[in-house]
Amino acid sequence: MDSTAVAAAHPNIALIKYWGNRDDSLRLPQNNSISMTLAGLHTVTRVRFHDGLPSDAIVLHGRPATGEARQRVVRHLDLVRQLAGLSARAEVLSANDFPTGAGLASSASAFAALTVAATHAAGLHLSTADLSRLARRGSGSACRSILGGIVEWTAGLDDQTSYAVPLAPAEHWPVVDVVAVVSTAEKDVGSSEGHRLAASSPLQAARLRGVEARLAACRAAIHQRDFPALATVVEQDSDLMHAVMETSTPPLRYRLPSSLALMSAVQGWRAAGWAVCYTLDAGPNVHCLCPAAQAPAVEQRLMSMAGVLRVFSAAIGAEARTLAESDPLTGLL
Ligand code: PMV
Question: Where do the structural domains in the chain lie, given as residue ranges?
Answer without folding.
Answer: 2-169, 172-314
